[in-house]
Every structure is written in structure tokens, then in C-alpha cells.
Amino acid sequence: MRSLFGNLRNIFSPAAAAPKADVGDPPAVGYVYSLLTSPFSEFAASETGRYAAFKIIGANADKLVVAVYDGIWPSPPSLAEFRKAKVLREHRFAHTGREAIFGTLLQWWSVDDFKELRLIGVDQPSRHELMEAEKNFAHAVGSRTASTRFINYAAEGEWRWANDRTAFEDEMRQKKEKEDAVRKAAEERYKNRLSKLTWQQLLSEPVFERWSPSPPFPPEKFAAAAREKIRSTCHELQELGPKPRKADVRRILKDCVLWFNRADDEAGGVIETEEREDICAILEEMAFVAKQKSLVEEVDMWRDW
After folding, report:
1. Listed residue (244, 248, 253) closest to 296, CA to CA
2. pLDDT tens digits, residue range 35-49?
3. Cα separation values, 299 from 51, 184, 295, Å
4. Structure confidence by residue, pLDDT tens digits, 160-178
5. Cα→Cα distances 81→55, 71, 78, 140, Å
């Protein structure tokens, strides 16, 4: 256990608790921030009037680990008020009470991404929090990486679930209905596209065009490498000729998926819902153009994201 906290930078110390710390300073272990929460969806009231708080419980050269707390206040809390709260446990919808602790890439941190962000003080992380940070750095099973938007979603979402559930569920129903309508229209366009798609067309189109800016999308280095991998895979499949063998197409597609597994792990887990949808969509297109559409069903068995 000698290296239990070996990956952590800025472990709480008197230096980290310098009284002149400012909200514009780089985040450090022990820093406690408050923010005005934002509406959970477009169907909610435009202003919440609620303040939440979170603590930086781990940091290294590339990543922060954040713990969102369960306090909700009508104004920015003091450090003393914050210390009466506990790490938030998530129960909304399918959540089973896991703690709202997650990692976020340091390059994703921006004061401008929060409403009324304030540094309210410095509080030493508990041993449990430091251990959770260490697990996150090690990509332990169950650890999460997300953009800083998760802070608001966790705090505001859990408050709504506990205190305003009927209206909250109605808003989520409206949100789902809108998403379903958009998805249905997209599926119709997609079916028409697949019937006519060629390698020439696929290679001439931009790849992962919506992956900008970062955040909330992955770092540009990851995105550029992902685009290059997709293009090189398309070329490999195209070289198999007009009637490729299923085994050859499977081998090339699987190599592409395994590349994304490794790249995502090395980048700290940056493939989230939208990225996953985009990657799966283009893998499906490649399988269709290679005349092996049944391989689409195997992608889920190969991927880790």
C-alpha cells in the first residue's frame, strides 16, 4: 500500500490552503466551489435559484477528480455550511445510490462553464475521498470520466428527483418525446443514405464533424487520431474489392474497434453517449458498404465504451 496515493498531485497541505486562493487559480486538491445550478433541461424553468457545491479530491498533471456534495442552498454557502453536507448519492431514474464522484480532464476545466462559480474555501479530503480519487486515476471498475457539466446534472437532477419529482419526470418525458422524433427523422434519412452509400462518398465526407469544441467533446488530439483511424480503416476495407470475404471485413472492423478501446482508455475515458453514437454509426456504414451488414451486431461484443 506504499503507493496508495502515489498518483495524486497537490495532496492537501498548508500550501494548498493558502488564504489568497482565487476562483481564477488552477483547481487544486481540497478546493471547494459553489455554483448556481442550471435548469436540467430546456423544459424546466429558466432559473433555479439553487446553489450547489463540489470539492476537488484529486489532481494530477492531466486530470481532476471531483466530488459533488448533497447540499442545496438559496445562496452561495459558507465553508462551514458546506462541511455539514456529505458526498451526494445518486438515486434519480436508474441510479442505485453511487457517490457523485468522477474524473474530468484538466483541459476541460473552465470557470466560464459554470454559473456564478465561487471558491468558498479549502477543505481536506477524507481518506475515503482520496482513495476514490486514486481509483479514478487507475481507471478502476465503476470509476467515471465526464465533462464538468456532470456537476450540475448531478446536483440539480438529484434535488429535482427528491423534491419535485412529478414535474421533473414530466419534463424528462417531453425531452424524450422530442429526442425520439428527431431520432426517427434521422433514421429515415439514414436508411435512404445506406442504400446509396459508396466508399468514394464515405471517404469524401468529414469524419466526426460535430466533435467540436472540446469540451464537451474529446480533446482535439484524440479526435484527430480517431478521424485518421476511420479513414485508414475505410481504405483497408475498400482494398478488399467489391466482394470481400466476411472474415476479412470482420478482422479489419474489429481492429478498428479495439483501437478505440485502447485510445479511449489512454485518454481517460472520453467516449460518452454522443461520441459512442457517432462511432457506431460510421462502423455500421462501413459494414454496409463492405456488404457485411450482419457484422454490425458484433460491434457491441468488441467495444469497451
Report:
1. 253
2. 999 999 999 999 999
3. 42, 22, 7
4. 999 999 999 999 999 999 9
5. 14, 9, 5, 32
- Alpha-carbon distance of 229 to 212, in angstroms, equals 18
> What is the number of other CB atoms lying within 10 angstroms of the CB of residue 98?
12
Measured from the Cβ of residue 272, the count of other Cβ atoms closer than 10 Å reads 18
- Whole-model pTM: value is 0.65
Q: How many CB atoms lie within 10 A of CB 174?
A: 14
Strand partners, 65: 58, 103
* Integer Cα distance of 99 and 155 in angstroms: 12
Q: How far is CA 54 from CA 26, 30, 60, 77, 125, in A?
A: 15, 10, 18, 11, 11
Q: Where are the beta strands (DSSP E) in the chain?
A: 31-36, 51-59, 63-68, 101-105, 118-122
* Cα angle 120-218-224, degrees, rounded to a multiple of 5: 145
Which pairs with CB-CB distance under 8 Å and at least 24 residues apart come from 184-192?
Answer: 190/281
| CB-based contact 52:69 (threshold 8 Å) | yes
Alpha-carbon gap, residue 229 to 7, rounded angstroms: 31
All cell numbers assigned to 209: 464533424
Q: Residue 130, class by beta-carbon neighbours within 10 Å (0-12 exposed, 13-18 middle, 19+ buried)?
A: buried
Q: How far apart are CA 246 and CA 289, in angstroms?
A: 12
Strand partners, 69: 87
C-alpha to C-alpha distances, 168 to 32, 53, 150, 173, 185, nearest whole angstrom:
28, 21, 17, 9, 26
Collapse the DSSP code of 66 into the 3-class scheme (helix H, G, I; strand E, B; otherwise coil) and give the result. Answer: strand
CA angle 260, 266, 268 (to 5 degrees): 100
